Structures are given as structure tokens and as C-alpha cells.
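Hello,

Our lab assistant flagged a job as stuck in the queue for most of the afternoon. It eventually completed. Since we weren't sure the result was trustworthy after the delay, we are filing this so someone can double-check. Below is the sequence as submitted and the structure that was eventually returned. Let us know if re-running is recommended.
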Amino acid sequence: MSERQPQEDFTPGRVHRINWRLARITAANPGMMTGPGTNTWIVGQADRVVVDPGPDDAAHQEAVAAAGEGRIKAILITHTHPDHSPGARRLQALTGAQVMAHPRELAGIRDTSFQADELLDEGDRLDGGDFTLHVLHTPGHASDHLCFLLEDDRILIAGDQVMDGATVVISPPDGNMQDYLDSLHRLMRLDLAAIAPGHGRLLQPPREVLEAVIEHRLHRERMVLQAVMEGEEQIADLVRRIYTHIPEALQRVAFGSVRAHLEKLRDEGRVAGGGDGPWRPLG
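-- returned structure --
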């Protein structure tokens, strides 16, 4: 999905610097869904902001606060999934920074304890002494999902819009495949130098990364539609047919993405159905 990048350090608590304006600390929550762990991004030198504090892990938040050197003014949340936002209050207690996020409350998997101090939405702008972040509302993976464009470096701090080496889960009710593809196409129109994802390495070249994600999703959609046309009616059967190459645990995760594909196809008038099934072709 991306060109080969230099080895990066994901040791928990260690600062990995991208440039003088952007650094990353990875949380100690590696796993099937999080890769090396959740990336917490620190932006700026004079005044600093943190993007995605990650899980509520004391050692991680203390490392982030230490890297902030008393200059963290805001804690930004890309989306309120449990691997991205629960550390916000602990980090706020350490730094006094305001917590900022999109106003949408998720209905599915979410950080149920989360509460923002200030709201962010499309078109908002955050100015520090040596950086400017533009706020982009990019629903799809989650309806409250935000990306942050670091203006001077043209780096997109992307949350779970894309991942290094894997595709993100799009699972209703908060995930929407058409919204996700629309958000990807929108990002394609930006002049980006790199993508700083919520999990894994810095991604370059960004246009090729985004193109590959879009093509992968459309290829999977064609597989789903073909299977329905050939008589598969239940999502469980579709998953077993399409995801033969992945472990059973990941097949359970794929259930949500197949449903998101089917709901997109239904909105386009190409299939009929709902829930787990039955789903049938139209036309």
C-alpha cells in the first residue's frame, strides 16, 4: 500500500520525531486491530497540541505529558473509539489542556465516558506559534471522525482514515462505506506530502496510498455483489466465502465491513435486504 519506509521506533513511551514540528509516541496496546499500538501525535514546539491520547494508560499519558514539556494547550480527538480517546482525561489532569472533538456521539463501539470541553468541526482552524492545523470532518470509519491537516508540512494526521499495512473496519451503525469512500476521494484532492496514521508508520506517497485503499474497497464490493448474485443471502455465508485467507477472529470483524458494503449497494438500488440477511440482487 505504501512505498518502503525507513524503520520506525514503536517502543512504548519513546518519542519518534518526524520533523521538528511533529512527533509520535506509540501506546503499549499492540494487537490485531491496532498494529504496533495507537499513535499519539504531538504537534508544535512553542505551544503544543496532542492528537489522540490513546488508551487510559498511566505510563503512556505520563510519557506524552513529559514530551509536551509543559506546553500542551489542547488534546484533539480524531474519533471516540476506545483505542483513541480514553486517555484524554488523564492527560488533561497532567497538563490542564482542553479536550476537543467532533460533536457527534457514536451509537456503536465508543468511549462511553468521553466528554469534550470544546467542539471541532469541518473548517475549524487551530493556530499555534509555529503551526496551523485545519480540521476536516471525514466520516466513514466513524461518524465523528476528524482528520487534521498540518498546513506547513502538508502532513495529514489521519486517525483511522487509513492504517499502515491493513484496512480499517467500516462497521454500521457508525461506519458507512459510501461516506468512507467519499472522504477518501476528498483527501485525494489535497496536496499532501505524507499521512500520519493512527496506527503504524508514516505513509508515503499519500496519493498512491489513498488510491490503493479505494481500489481495495471497490474490489471487495465487487466480490460481495457477485456472491449475492450467485445466491448467497446471509452475511455470515458471504464472509466465509470472501474472507477465506484470514483467521476466524478477523472474519468476525469482517462481518461489519460486508454489511457496510451491502448497505451501500442497497442505497444504490443494486441489492435488497437488511441486517444479517437475507440479501438479494435487484435488476
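-- support follow-up --
The delay was a queue issue, not a problem with the job. The result is valid. Residues 61 and 90 are 7 Å apart (CA to CA). The chain has a mean pLDDT of 94.
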